[in-house]
Structures are given as C-alpha cells and as structure tokens.
Amino acid sequence: MNPQHVISIRFYATIFGALLVLTLSTAGAAFIDLGGNLNTIVALAIATVKALLVILFFMHVRYSSRLTWVFVGAGFFWILILLTLTMTDPLTRDWLETTIGR
Amino acid sequence: MSDFPAIHAHQFDDAAQQHEASWLGMWVFLATEVMFFGGMFLGYLLYRTTYPQAFASASNHLDLWLGTINTAVLICSSFTMALAVRAAQIGQKRPIIIFLVLTIVLGAVFLGIKFTEYHVKFEEHLVPGSAFAYDGPLGSSAEIFFSFYFAMTGMHALHMIIGLGLLTTLVVKTARGRFSVSYNTPVELVGLYWHFVDIVWIFLFPLLYLVGRHLR
Amino acid sequence: MNGPIEERRQHYLNVNYGLKSWLLTTDHKRIAWLYLIVVTFFFFVGGLFATLIRLELLTPQGDLVQAETYNKLFTMHGVTMIFFFLIPSIPAVLGNFLIPLMIGARDLAFPRLNLASWYIYILGGLFTLAAAAAGGVDTGWTFYTPYSSIYSNTHVALTVIGIFITGFSSILTGLNFIVTIHTMRAPGMTWFRLPLFVWAHYATSIIFILGTPVIAITLALVALERLFGLGIFNPELGGDPLLFQHLFWFYSHPAVYIMILPGMGVISELITCFSRKRVFGYDFIAFSSLAMFVSGQSVYASMIFSLLSMLVAIPSAIKVFNWTATLYKGSISFDAPMLYALGFIGLFTIGGLTGLFLATLGVDVHVHDTYFVIAHFHYIMVGSAVMAYLGGIHFWWPKMTGRKYPEPLARLAAVIIFLGFNLTFFPQFVLGYLGMPRRYHVYPPEFQVLNVMSTAGASILALGYVLPLAYLIWSLRYGAVAGMNAWKARGLEWQTPSPPPTDNFDVTPVVLQEAYAYDVDEPEVIYASEKAAHV
Asked: Which residue of C240, C242, C299 is in closest CB contact with A85?
C-alpha cells in the first residue's frame, strides 16, 4: 500500500534535477556516433533510468507494498513479452531457406 | 483546510480498505495503458529494425529543440504534480491548487508546442496520406515513420488532454475543500496517471527524435 | 417455504421499482441482470446470422445469398458471438452477480465503474449494430490487413470502433474483479478457500487487463488507416500485414481462454455440488487457471506456436482429470445444471483433443482453414462455454430470482441442446477432414449430406436454446419459490436469502472452513457471523 510517506521538497527537486540532466545528456549523446547499435542502447538506457526515477519516487513505488510492486512489474513484464516474442518473427524470417517466392 | 472524518463508500469496511482498493485499481488501469501503448511500440520496433535508414532520415526532420524543450516541460510538470500530491498529503489547500495549476499550465505549454510541430509537419507535407511528399528514395518507409509519429504522439496528446481535464476537476474539488490529510486519494491517483503519461513521453522522445542525429 | 411472507421481505429486486432505479443502479446484482438481457439479445442476433449461414449451406450452390453477402454473414456471426456474447457472458452476468457474494462482500470495489462498463458495452454494441444495419462487414472477425485496412468496401471502421469501445467494458470489469478479489474478501476467506469460480474469474481478469488493450490499439490503428490514410499496414508503403496478425492474435489467442476459463469456473462449482464432494485437486485447478493464461500467448514461429498450444493442453487436461476424480464415489444427481456440466466435460474433451490435432504441424497443414477448425472451436465455444453458461444460469437461478425453474423441462432442454449440438458440429469434423474449406458459401456436391445433417442439427439446437428462454421467463412469475439454499450447496452465496438483500449479507460472514466442505453436514458450523462493523 502507500502509507502516506511524505517526501521532502528538496528530494523531489533532486530527482527533478537528475531528470533534466539525463534529458540533456540523451539529446547531446545522440549526436555522437557510438558505433553500431550503441546509440540506441544508450538512449534507451537513459530513458529507462528516467522512467525508474519517476516510478520509484514521483509515483512512490519505492515506498509501496509488495503487491504494488507485483502489479507494476506485471505490466512491464507483459510488454516485454509482447515486444520480444513478436520480434522473433521478423528477426528469424531469413533463417529458413525456401524455394517458394524468392 | 476542512478536516472531515474519514468517510468511505458503503461497499468498503473502512477508509483504509477503500484507499488500498483505489490505489490498486489505478495501477491495474496503468497496466492496461502500458499494453495499449505497447502495441504501437511493437509496430514501431518492427519497422525500425526493417527500415533503419528511413527511420533515421525521417527522424531528423523532427525539430530537436522543440522536442527537448517539450521533454523538459513535461518532466517539470511531473515535478509540480508530485508537489501537489505532497501538499495534499499534508493538507495544505493553497499549495495544492498552486501546484495543480502549474501542472496544468505546463501541460498546456507541452500541447501548444506539440500542435505547433504538427502544423509545421503539415506545411512540410509530412503528414501521411495523399498529401505526403518526402524527398529521397526512402519515401514510402519514411511515411511509415511519420504514421507512427502521429499515431503515438497523437495518442499521447489525447491522454494529456484527458489529464488536463482531470487536473481541472481536482482544482475545483480542492477549492471546495473536498480533500484533507485523511482523504486525498483522487489527487494521488491523478498524479499516478500524470506521471505515467510523462513516462510514455520519456520513451517516445529518444525513439522518435534521436534516431539518426549521429548520422547527419 | 412461506410464499406470502417471502414476498414481503425486502431484497435487491423489490427494494425499489422503475426504469431509473435499474438504469442508474450501482448494485452488482442488478447490473448482472442488465448484462443478462443484452447478452441474450446479442446471442440471438448472432444466432440469426448462423441460421442464414446454415440455410445457405443446405445446398452446394450459392443460391440463397451472394458470395459477398455470405462473407458478411460469417463475419457478423463471429463478431457478434465472440465480442458481444462469449467474452462478456459468464463474467458480466454470473461473475458480476456472484463474486461479491462468494467472497462475502457487499458489492464490487467500484460499483459505479461497473455500471459504466455496461453503458460502454451498450455503446459499442450500438456501433456494431449500426454497421450491420448499414450493410455489414465482410473481412472475417479476424479483420486481416490489408483487406480490412485498405481494400474492403464494407463498414470496417464502424465495426472496429464498436469492438474498440466494447473492449473497455471488459477491461473495466476485469479491473473491478481483480481489485475486489484482492481487497474485499471476508474475514477468514483466504486465497485458498476461494471458490474455484472466483479463481477462474481472477485469471480471466488478468487476461482482460493485459490482452484487451492490445487489440484495442490494433483496431484503432486499422480505423486510423481507413479514415486518415495512416499507412502502418499498407504493403505499398512497405507495411507488413503480419504485424496486424501478431497484434491481433496477441489478444485473440488469450481471448479464447477468456471465453473458456469462466466456464471452467462454473463447472467446478456444478460438479462439486452435484457430486456432494470436495473438488479433487483444488490447488491444481486453481493454478492451472493461471497456467492457461500464461501459456496461451500467441507466438510466431510455427514450431513455438505448436509447442505452446500443446503446453496449454496440460492445464486443461488437469482440470478434466480433477473433475472426473471429483465425480468418482460422489453422490451424483442429474439435475439440469449437472447435465450441462457432464455435457461440458465430454464436449470439452473432444474440443480440446481436436485442438491438439490442430496444434500438430503435420496434421494442421492438412486441416488448416477447413471445417475441422470450425468444428473444433465450436466444440469449445458452444459445446463447452455456452453449456457452462446455461448450466450456471440454471444453478444460480434460484439465488438470483428466488424461484425454481421447471426441472423436467430444463432437463429435456439440456438433452435437446446436447443432441442438437453434436448433430450440428460433429459432421463438420468429417467435412473438414475431407477438405471442405471454411468461409465459402459453395462446396462440392459430395459434401451435401453432411451439410444437411449439420443444418438439421442447428435447427434442433435452436429449439433447445429457445426453451430455456421461455421457461426461465415463465418461472419469474410462476416458478416454485426457492429457499435460501435450493441445492444444499456450500459457498457463501448460499448463506444469504434468495434473492439476496441489496447489501448481500445482513451480517458479514466469517469463513472457518475450506471450500466445498460437503463432508460436513451442518453448514452453520462452517460460517460464524460477526456484526458488520461498517458505517
């Protein structure tokens, strides 16, 4: 549950500051060619950190019950299932040799 | 700040049960929203892996300054929303209203910038449909990028508009003294919703605006 | 059973009268009735489409309707039956009515949201009926792109918007059930004392929550493509038609579990009551519900698809074994609900096994898109799910109305339905195996005999469905008055008067026993009551 844990304004401001810094970083990092898929990975990693900060502190999940964590986790787990399992199709289309329609 | 006893709806045994149910209910709803946007993220993922150059090239047509400013604006609105929830937790009526109004203003600024971007895209013939015109051989796959751009940011904007409506309702209710230290659940729940909408944008920003900046 | 005195007692049906008291109700029991009326309506609408299909298929030529019209008929039959009957029926009618009663609560967690769910369903239904009235849609209920998104000239957008809207009805119902089951169980009602009906609805609700939004956004994208030219599924732009299929089936495969899990929950209740025995392997059945929801996810390489379809057979089989084991050495009575339950076990076994044939790649190559598939899923959706729904309606009818239905007529109807059903759909297994493809209004003449048998069966089945409609309505006025526990069943819902008072229990029950304690003679031992301490 969320037992009315009151967070200080300063702490919120720190999180806010971190989010702004991360935003500027990701925009800046986008211009540097990191090679291969690294740009995408870095951008998504930064986005994930930002999302976690919002979830844990702005949404109070850090201070919530285990049941809340299960519900939050379920949602993200499920979207991961959607993305990864579905992508097995386009990523494996080239794997099987076929003489039809090539 | 009016201080009324913790009342609860008749189906609940006490205020604590009502609060727990409401809190869980909002998280279940947010799980559905994750899956709702998830379908579009899947489509995006599929086409980006299939047409990487088209996506990179098309992405560079988006205004990076406006996108970054908007991201900062939305994060700021999450900050003010968190402060509004905090004020509700300690029962301070005026700060609740101030922070809610700030959140609304920032949200409106976001939407204003967004619709300006849409307008520019319309002028540049980058809205998918019969009027779409893209210079370069990657044209048709670029149209797919812009389809996702409009679908995803459009759906996000729709959620923001709904959020602004919810926030306005909260301002009115706060002004009427409906909330107190013992009862501020609606503020909390709208906060969760608003933060979620922020998180969606946190992912949309790099996926839409930052695909090919390093390839220019 | 004192007739006049019962009638003077106040309960949820007579507490107030008038259209407004029904249309603005927040009582989960009244909302269940609102749903009952509309899903019955849509059941007969879907049945009408089925009638036209079966009439056309009496002859090998396309002589009743044109091909395009036939396409619209099977599409509208599928859309109506799946989205407006099968998915809502048991959860929105029986789930809504019973879940608070079964867990000892006064209502669901969010009663007004419950009413909103009904209105959302109505709105979606109106859109879809409007599409039907305007000329229908011919894409198949699966709406595959690019036909549905670009080339079809029928009312696709209107229909998918209707389904989109109705999806939110399910989502909100699922949300309500999950929160209610988590937070509002009576004292002593631990998770493992919950009736299996509740477990089944919990698992179903998870699928509602996690799956329905995906089809919602998918259909929204199709509508956007049709209305605004957004080119996500357009092959001319490089769009991938398979993307639609992945998104569509990410919901629709779990959706078939939405359609069967609640029915399985009903069957667990019926089998245990009419064998007077605890359910064999309670834990296994509870967990198998969750396992079905997990392993039912649709996947992409055929091999994985095949494997997961086979895996999902395991929890299904566990359930069938456990129900059968519950019957063993039980004291069995053959009231109408039990007839439906026994029919379910047999027909579900056939449907499930034929599902395994379809999951076997080598066989599937041969019978894919034939009447074998149609027979398979109708054995599950009609032979199982609809029978479970009817069994549940009959079983809980005394609780919902305070009246008994006429038992001999009900048993007759159950038998007619069982026979009519098998005559309709068993020939279709043969037809499919012999090669008759689905979704065609014409067929080679050598298939006619089997098709005529199927249509004959359908007319018997139709009679079977009309009978309960008639005698259940009749019983509202003329049925024998039922007491609190018409079947001497276990379960909290039977510990409150029939019909229940608006707040379900005059005092909050405290649960002291496991579920299905049929080995205990005195129900009073199972529940103690404490004075409800709510405001």
From this structure: C299
